[in-house]
Design brief:
By secondary structure, the protein is an alpha/beta fold. It has one domain: Undecaprenyl pyrophosphate synthetase (3-Layer(aba) Sandwich), CATH 3.40.1180. 43% of the residues lie in helices and 13% in strands. The structure holds 3-methylbut-3-enyl trihydrogen diphosphate (IPE) (2 copies) and magnesium ion. The site of one 3-methylbut-3-enyl trihydrogen diphosphate has 11 residues, from strand 1.
Length: 233
């Protein structure tokens, strides 16, 4: 889920951008409920990209503080709902305090099946560079051969290798771009873009996205339609 449009939402109301992020954090809570009700097992939220560090300092620090408050407030809720929290991204960019809070929840929730993956200081390109480096180190150390480097090997060196590729990627606020999100994993994901701004995203929108997904014909490069018939054309 690419959560976009908080700034525009705030601007429409003559409020500071941070008010939009605050409202957006409420949407996160609601979306967790929709996913639970719909039986979604993996939800990845794009919360902060590596490029987002270039925003004005007060917005960045406000966002980080909001994240800290959010995790503190919903820590118990996540455990109670039996949701496993995982963070993907460059954790070393985060403050020691935020990192410790996130890692505590990650440990507490490690045994749960349903997963909430939060992309924080995340960049799809950086994730791939990191994978390449980890593989290169193994080859250098002699624990891996160059001929062992295949798609499975690259996938095994991503931040959360056991999480399946997303079936559906939803982006709010109308932008038709990927903005460096899950570049490897999105190879065959279905896209759904809604003009609704993230703070306004609601259950009706969520259900519309799922319905659109259900109506798609995922061919994965083949010719069969979803009823398993050969395409006659
Ligand atoms: C998404 O909303 C939140 C983050 C990227 C952190 P934006 O802040 O990008 O909102 P717009 O795109 O400016 O409206
Ligand atoms: C994408 O939103 C990143 C997140 C949702 C965290 P942006 O607002 O940063 O993306 P661009 O700038 O519109 O591509
Ligand atoms: Mg944006």
């Amino acid at each position: 889920m690419i959560m976009d449009g908080n700034g525009r939402w705030a601007r429409q109301r003559g409020q500071p951008r941070l008010a939009g992020h605050e409202a957006g954090s409420e949407t996160v809570r609601r979306v967790l409920n929709y996913c639970r009700d719909a039986g979604v097992r993996y939800l990845t939220l794009y919360a902060f990209s590596t490029e987002n560090w270039t925003r004005p300092e007060d917005e960045v620090s406000g966002l980080m503080a909001l994240l800290g408050r959010f995790i503190k407030r919903y820590e118990r809720d996540l455990i109670k709902r039996q949701v496993r929290l995982r963070v993907i991204g460059r954790r070393s960019d985060l403050s020691a305090q935020l990192r410790a809070a996130l890692e505590r929840v990650e440990q507490e929730s490690a045994g749960f099946e349903r997963q909430l993956i939060v992309a924080l200081s995340y960049s799809g390109r950086s994730e791939l560079v990191r994978a390449a480096r980890l593989i290169a180190e193994k080859v250098k150390a002699g624990t891996m051969r160059p001929e062992d480097v295949d798609e499975a090997a690259v996938a095994a060196h991503l931040y959360a290798p056991d999480v399946p590729d997303p079936e559906l990627i939803i982006r709010t606020s109308g932008e038709m771009r990927i903005s460096n999100f899950l570049l490897w994993q999105c190879a065959y994901s279905e896209f759904y873009v809604t003009p609704v701004l993230w703070p306004d995203f609601n259950e009706q929108e969520f259900n519309a996205a799922l319905a659109a997904y259900a109506a798609r014909d995922r061919r994965f490069g083949g010719v069969r339609d979803k009823r398993g018939r050969e395409d006659a054309s």
